[in-house]
Amino acid sequence: MTRFASHISTLLYAALLAILAFVTAVLLAAVGTLVVDAISPGALGAVHVNAQALDMKTPGVVVAALAVMLIALGLVWAALLPLIQMLRSTAAGEPFTTANVRRLHWIAGTIAVAYLLQFALPPILPFDAQDMVKPMGVDGVFAILLTLVLAQVFREGVRLREEAEGTI
Amino acid sequence: MAIRINLDRILLDRRMSLTELAERVDLTLANLSILKTGKARAIRFTTLDAICSALACQPGDILEHVANTPPHD
Asked: ipTM of this predicted complex?
């Protein structure tokens, strides 16, 4: 890999780790706030105002909000972890592997699950928690297609690498 | 593979070892072994040129097509 490409790789790696850490911290903080607030209202002072603004008073709404946050956390990890592993394998000089094709399919599947959940979740959530599911719009479909096309490109890359390895 | 590599026969004729050929054509012994045992999937013209020069032979002396053999994978 050239020096420039390896710098970009390092930057991407740092950015992905930062995003993963940030999203995890924000979601876990939100989960923590909800739990503490539900157990002893007013214990968190000013933070309590936010929870009240969401009108999360009934246990059902709190449980639904927690479920949405944990699902979101799971989806973020499921999509970003394979991306980090792909970057690692690329830095190691082995980008075109069947493992990376599988990872891209997995990422596409994760985005598809997130896309379907935006329609499937709100009807089964209590009314006050429905606002938590933010619609993804057409970007989601584009992201799924982009990832699937990339997976095909990588599959062809694997074939070309195997052919090049057998050439003397 | 329908293409048979007759490198060992030519080497025997020229009384040359695989190691010596590897040095002359600037290939690793491992790669040359893959070629000799017929496990290679393709051969570059530059490699063929170097081998033919080193052994003073024609590509047809090394490569042979054998009909009715099932292809590799």
From this structure: 0.73
Q: Provide the number of structural domains found in chain A.
A: 1
Instruction: For each of the domains in chain B, give its residue range(s) and CATH number, in order of start.
Output: 3-65 (1.10.260.40)
Select the residue from B41, B48, B52 to test the A interface by mutation, using most A Cβ atoms within 10 A: B41
- A18 contact partners, CB below 8 Å, separation of at least 6: none
Contacts A163 to B, Cβ<8 Å: 41-42
Predicted local distance difference test score (pLDDT) of residue A42: 66
Report in angstroms the alpha-carbon separations of A106 from A10, A22, A80, A103, A161.
23, 22, 11, 5, 22
Sort out which chain B residues have CB atoms less than 8 A from A167's CB and list them: 40-44
Is A166's CB within 8 Å of B42's CB? Answer: yes
pLDDT tens by residue, B32-47:
999 998 888 899 999 9
The reply to whether B31 touches chain A by the CB within 8 Å rule is yes
C-alpha to C-alpha distance for A51 and A35, rounded to whole angstroms: 11
Q: What are the tens digits of pLDDT across the range A4-51?
A: 878 888 899 999 999 999 999 999 998 888 888 777 766 665 454 455
Chain A nearest-CA residue for B27: A168
